[in-house]
Amino acid sequence: MSMPLLKVEGLVKQFPIHGGLLGREVARVHAVDGVSFELAPGETLGIVGESGCGKSTLGRSILRLLEPTAGEVSFEGRSVTRASPAELRALTRDMQIIFQDPFASLNPRMSVRDIVGEALVIHKLAGNAQQREARVVELLETVGLSADQMRRFPHEFSGGQRQRIGIARALAVSPKLVVCDEAVSALDVSIQAQVINLLEDLREQFGLAYLFIAHDLSVVEHISHRVAVMYLGRIVEIAPAKALYTEPRHPYTEALLSAVPIPDPTVKRRRIPLQGDLPSPIHPPTGCHFHTRCPLAQTAQCREQRPELKQVADGHWVACHLRS
Ligand code: SF4
């Protein structure tokens, strides 16, 4: 890969838990536990895993909406983690986020014109009110809305339309990277497909790169060039999308994929049930975090030693002592 757009190295995010009379730190939630990857310009990396695996925390720590505990993030060679407030403001022009619940992320008292135009004002991207309004109309039309909807308020739109408003707001500053944090998870399946198609068109039109975070493997399959699977704060497998779906190597990915329905009823897939619940990220299992639920042999090495990501095929990396 030439110069990556985004480089994440050993990213860690822990949340302290305070307790007792003195409010001392009594434990830590290990939400993101040493994540590294690179993203090329115009690339879509899907990030999947069960609820609580740290994928949303990862996206927010990359953008410094949450302060990382350790590790390094750089964007086009510029450090995000060590950026001053002024440098970070400049970086946010290039790195935007779309949230899962567009209703919660859109100010109910602001019209669509003001919601989409706000970023233009903050970043001084539109000269006068007339130019700003023209740009808002252009953005709304880009995402499939119309100029006459500009004076309406978020509650007057459907879920899919509200997500389009969120996308228009993100696009207002002409970003190079958009973190889509469960951006379609709250939508009906048919609306999900429309929004995914829109995001795909916008990627081609503007050369955007996406970090596409979802809990459902089937959602990220078609939009992603590569997919990373997370388990308890760590990436356990990362591969080109086709390889991951046809030749998964990590037992956790195999189990997740075995639960995805296949549209062709003649094709049978063996279901691999996951044992037990996701362990607490406050006290994650030692060694391989997955060893308490792994259907493969759980060796002493599995219980004691963290498996590092190792390349098993071109661009295909797996963190498993028995599969590398
Ligand atoms: Fe299972 Fe061991 Fe591989 Fe972890 S390292 S996934 S416990 S076989």
Automatic annotation (TrEMBL):
The keyword Cell membrane applies. Gene3D superfamilies: P-loop containing nucleotide triphosphate hydrolases. Keywords: ATP-binding, Cell membrane, Membrane, Nucleotide-binding, Transport. Residues 6-257 form the ABC transporter domain. Coiled coil: none annotated. InterPro entries: AAA+_ATPase, ABC_transp_ATP-bind, ABC_transporter-like_ATP-bd, ABC_transporter-like_CS, Oligopep_ABC_C, P-loop_NTPase. It comes from the Bacteria. It holds the Pfam family oligo_HPY. GO terms for molecular function: ATP binding. PANTHER family: D,D-DIPEPTIDE TRANSPORT ATP-BINDING PROTEIN DDPF-RELATED (PTHR43776:SF7), TRANSPORT ATP-BINDING PROTEIN (PTHR43776). Belongs to the ABC transporter superfamily. This is Dipeptide ABC transporter ATP-binding protein. It comes from Ideonella azotifigens. The lineage of its organism: Bacteria, Pseudomonadati, Pseudomonadota, Betaproteobacteria, Burkholderiales.
